[in-house]
Amino acid sequence: MSEAEPQKIRSHRDLIVWQKAMDLVTNVYRATEDFPKSELYGLTSQIRRCAASIPANIAEGQGRRLAGEFLQFLGNARGSLLELDTHLEIALRLNMLSKEWHAKLMDQLVEVRKLLNGLMRSIKT
Length: 125
Hints:
about 120 residues; de novo design (two linked rop proteins); mainly alpha; elongated
């Protein structure tokens, strides 16, 4: 295959948006390691669950047969991304998350959002 030919998507693992979302989840887990133990079942759990939901929804949607179903799961992933944005802001305001971690995670979040929106646009057309 030449470099000019686009690479065929064989699974969700081939999607750059899934790869970047997985990187985001990894960093979310690292950033929340030092959250107060009293928040283990509160904000820590909420942040981790919505972060993990992003690549999980991308993967599940890619495994569906119809474009409409894929779009629905990508929409769910985008919803989880916005939920994560909100939870990270709460953690920052409560001084549970450093400004440095917040900035790093937000950079990744914005990148995933752009990739996700682009994928959704390409599927719609």
